[in-house]
């Protein structure tokens, strides 16, 4: 199946000499939720800007639904909806007028029924005749999403969509995203809430300093790169890890009251049995132990550090 978005050898160098993107290759599948993660300045917004036709690439090609975003800009852009991070909205027009205008920009015929569905999905129907300037920040964020969906795009970009919004809007938004995917819409999101990416995304891409470090299925990423830890709560605090245990991946936390042992759960021998025996030989007793898996946030931080 042809990818929804196909990116090859994409580079962007600004007039200042800053290289925002370096030879990015990426295919985004039709109907998937793809999360693009990276620290501030990593190149996420530049990448989105190029795909959406806002920023011109220095080199490389981008196809959106088979259309080149530079040579066939109008056709490519008609396939894309963009929810920007900034809350820049036309302040004096009504919500309904803003949606009609957004739909008309793409040459779409009037379809009040579609616009009504969008507004109802975003709990905006009761605000359709309200001027945008009179809405709260959360409601303005909903309007941005509604405008992006007005022309029925097959690809939707969400750039930090839940930044600064309340829990209710965040929940409504992700419910809507799931419904859109069920109808075949491809969704690309950037977010600082890494737990959202872990819960929502089919695949995750991690970018840093303009380079795509990794693209992987979310479940596979967690399984391959996620570490497990054994947390042992000691009966008596330690001042430091004993020298005879220095060869083990042990860390002392909680004021010396907890030992943390990091291991690879994919290996046949995790080292736990050996650890417990050596603790016994050292006379170190514990009153509780439990394991935990590393979070996507910890994986992300490790990857970014390794890529520096």
TrEMBL record:
Keyword Phosphoprotein in annotation: no
GO molecular function, one term: ATP hydrolysis activity
Pfam families per the UniProt record, alphabetical: ABC_tran
Domain called ABC transporter: residue spans: 5-234
Keyword set, alphabetical order: ATP-binding, Nucleotide-binding, Transport
InterPro entries reported for this sequence: AAA+_ATPase, ABC_transporter-like_ATP-bd, ABC_transporter-like_CS, ABC_transporter_ATP-binding, P-loop_NTPase
SMART domains: AAA (SM00382)
Annotated PROSITE patterns: ABC_TRANSPORTER_1, ABC_TRANSPORTER_2
Record has Nucleotide-binding as a keyword: yes
Official protein name in the record: ABC-2 type transport system ATP-binding protein
Organism whose genome encodes this protein: Rehaibacterium terrae
UniProt lineage: Bacteria, Pseudomonadati, Pseudomonadota, Gammaproteobacteria, Lysobacterales
